[in-house]
Amino acid sequence: MLEETYSGTPPRSGKRRDRVIAIQVAPGADLPPLEREAVHTAVREQGPKPGGLIEVLHAVQARLGCVPPRTVPLIAYGLNLTRAEVHGVISFYHDFREQPPGQRVVKLCRAEACQAVGARALETHLREQLGIDLHTTTPDGRVTLEPVYCLGNCALGPSVMIDGRLHGRVTPQGLERLLGQAP
Ligand code: FES
After folding, report:
1. How far is it, in rounded angstroms, from Cα 122 to Cα 39?
2. Does ligand 1 come within 6 angstroms of the Cβ of 153?
3. Which of 109, 122, 146 for mutating ligand 1's site (highest number of atoms within 8 Å of CB)?
4. Distance CA 71, CA 86 (A)
5. Is the dihedral of CA 53, 55, 56, 61 positive or negative?
6. Mean pLDDT value of segment 173-183
7. CA quadruple 154, 54, 104, 181: dihedral positive or negative?
8. What is the tens place of the pLDDT at every residue in 32-90?
């Protein structure tokens, strides 16, 4: 959206007119088209309704693989929220990520029932093997490691979700085998 305003006294003939152009850039104009479209579509489909922000964030992440920080102003604008509100939700929920994930996404359950049957050892093994911490991705972009707090598979822990598929009673060797298989 462009807006022109003029300052100074009204021009008289023969006098120089000061012309000040105030440019107001439309929210999201600086985003790559794919990101802008992802936000517009999500806001249009989910709309400003209770809980709409969560739905919009899920929709954006489903389309882009993450919620890029630069999309936050447009999401906030579309839902009539503040940027801080949007950012607060993204950082509160573990499900939302700000960077694209690796080729494989491993979610390790860290809740109590799994901890009681070896989840901690599994986590230590995996972190050492991959050389990364939770919430990060290997430098080659192969694996992203994320914590979760219960996958609803407590009786068969330790539980791990790899690329959306749930696995129970996972051992360090079993996990290596699973990661060695094609996605
Ligand atoms: S505690 Fe791990 S699946 Fe429930």
Report:
1. 37
2. yes
3. 109
4. 10
5. positive
6. 82
7. positive
8. 999 999 999 999 998 677 779 999 999 999 999 999 999 999 999 999 999 999 999 99
- Helix crossing, 52-64 with 33-46: angle to 10°? 150
Ligand 1 test: best mutation among 153, 160, 170, most atoms within 8 Å of CB? 153
CA-to-CA distance for 90 and 99, rounded, in angstroms? 12
76 in Cβ contact with 88 (< 8 Å): no
Q: How many other CB atoms are found less than 10 A from the CB of residue 149?
A: 10
Q: Is 111 in the pocket of ligand 1 (CB under 6 A)?
A: yes
What average pLDDT score do residues 118-146 get?
93
pLDDT of residue 22: 72
